[in-house]
């Protein structure tokens, strides 16, 4: 049994990943969305685990790709430090430089052998993207960022097949970055997860990733409620309306539990550790001050490749679960509006709304799921608007929308605790240190950005407020 057969043997025969890979160049005519099927395997959505895979992701590539695996292991084992770390010692800088030289001296490996399996491609993207972030962020702040061909070109090729940006994504840090804490227990379960890869090796970083993983698993019931609701919309009678109202009340409770799960990150992840130790590694090319361009060496001799245009880092905005809730509830027209580009620079460049752009960072099957959901000819919100005299239905729908708004309130609280407050504290301490040394004041700091490149406070408030606009008037004032 070869590796491909072994991988398929771990999956049920009807699962998407057990089937032959389709030609990634094949698309529907004129970009049309095919709505002939909503089978879960078409979208790599499992009825037990949602957007998380039901089996542990591949933990190592075949032997021919061992140079990639060992160089990443070396970065983790050496506890490398970011190049713009305050107080970086000469020894730490030298260790990072030696490791980067190791990366540059790797052989330039072909990627054709990875195409036989989606699982191999996922692992390759994960290993190379993690290595990319180690490489980029250990470079001293005053040096240009030039990514060596043995790292950059394979990452670009794998990313092109997967239709993903060549950078670390939410799927690399959350969806495909777990293993069972106890292999003897059922998997994956919220209380039986550990992370495979970490930049810092700290529990804080791991808890940050696992909190999102637990939210994905809790969101499985939300996906079930969406499916049941769409079935009832098809029926459309008075009894169906009552069932939909019941589903909406239940969905509101599930979203509240997502809120509780998000807040639980405080139990294992200290804000200072996350902000100063873990978060710097996750930054994309459009995050932080300076924003040196990431240049991929060797592109001029690789006619099959193009310079990447999307290099934001991993972001909660790349979770297909939250996007699915927006689409299902009919909120996406507000929350994905082009006026919410994420930053003034992005808006000036005519870039798409931030949440719309983040869909490019999702596994392409999950993007297709969102496309199919958005293309449903019988959307929920339209039904509720038509049935405006049904106060019970509208009130139940509003409960779900209100729960989404409150989830975004909590997200703003977490972002304030873990990013905005530590950033302000660090900025104040740096200013006081400059004043103590008698140095001149530097120019005013740029707006604080998320790892995905957003101007955080303004963007999150905008999305939260747009979500609240989704509430509908209720007949009889219920």
TrEMBL record:
The keyword Cytoplasm does not apply. GO terms for molecular function: heme binding; indoleamine 2,3-dioxygenase activity; metal ion binding. Gene3D superfamilies: 1.20.58.480. InterPro entries: Indolamine_dOase, Trp/Indoleamine_2_3_dOase-like. The keyword Iron applies. GO terms for cellular component: cytoplasm. Heme b binds at residue 411. Keywords: Dioxygenase, Heme, Iron, Metal-binding, Oxidoreductase. Pfam families: IDO. Belongs to the indoleamine 2,3-dioxygenase family. This is Indoleamine 2,3-dioxygenase.
């Amino acid at each position: 049994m070869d590796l491909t057969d072994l991988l398929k043997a771990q999956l049920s025969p009807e699962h998407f990943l057990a089937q032959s890979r389709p030609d990634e160049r094949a698309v529907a005519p004129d970009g049309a969305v095919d709505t002939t099927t909503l089978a879960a395997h078409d979208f790599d959505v499992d009825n037990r685990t949602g957007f998380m895979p039901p089996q542990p992701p591949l933990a190592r590539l075949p032997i021919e790709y061992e140079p990639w695996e060992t160089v990443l292991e070396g970065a983790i084992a050496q506890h490398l430090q970011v190049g713009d770390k305050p107080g970086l010692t000469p020894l730490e800088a030298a260790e990072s430089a030696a490791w980067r030289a190791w990366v540059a001296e790797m052989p330039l490996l072909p990627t054709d052998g990875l195409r036989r399996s989606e699982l191999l491609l996922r692992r390759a993207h994960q290993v190379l993207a993690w290595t990319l972030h180690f490489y980029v962020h250990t470079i001293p702040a005053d040096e240009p960022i030039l990514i060596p061909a043995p790292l950059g070109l394979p990452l670009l090729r794998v990313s092109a097949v997967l239709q993903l940006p060549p950078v670390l994504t939410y799927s690399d840090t959350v969806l495909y970055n777990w293993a069972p804490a106890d292999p003897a227990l059922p998997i994956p379960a919220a209380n039986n997860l550990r992370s495979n890869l970490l930049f810092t090796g700290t529990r804080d970083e791991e808890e940050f990733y696992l909190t999102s993983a637990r939210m994905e698993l809790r969101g499985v019931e939300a996906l079930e409620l969406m499916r049941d609701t769409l079935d009832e919309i098809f029926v459309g009678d008075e009894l169906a309306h009552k069932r939909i109202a019941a589903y909406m009340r239940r969905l509101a409770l599930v979203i509240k539990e997502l809120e509780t799960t998000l807040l639980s990150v405080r139990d294992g992840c200290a804000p200072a550790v996350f902000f100063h130790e873990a978060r710097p590694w996750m930054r994309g090319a459009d995050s932080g001050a300076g924003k040196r361009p990431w240049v991929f060496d060797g592109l001029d001799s690789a006619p099959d490749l193009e310079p990447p245009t999307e290099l934001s880092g991993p972001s909660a905005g790349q979770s297909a679960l939250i996007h699915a809730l927006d689409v299902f509830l009919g909120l996406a027209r507000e929350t994905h509006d082009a006026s919410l580009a994420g930053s003034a620079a992005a808006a000036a460049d005519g870039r798409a709304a931030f949440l719309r752009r983040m869909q490019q960072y999702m596994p392409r099957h999950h993007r297709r799921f969102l496309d199919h959901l958005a293309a449903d000819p019988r959307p929920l919100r339209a039904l509720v608007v038509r049935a405006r005299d049904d106060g019970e239905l509208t009130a139940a729908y509003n409960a779900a929308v209100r729960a989404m708004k409150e989830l975004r309130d909590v997200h703003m609280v977490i972002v304030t605790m873990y990013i905005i407050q530590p950033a302000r504290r660090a900025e104040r301490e740096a200013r006081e240190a400059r004043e103590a040394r008698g140095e001149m004041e530097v120019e005013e700091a740029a707006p604080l950005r998320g790892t995905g490149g957003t101007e955080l406070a303004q963007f999150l408030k905008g999305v939260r407020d747009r979500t609240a606009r989704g509430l509908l008037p209720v007949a009889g004032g219920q």
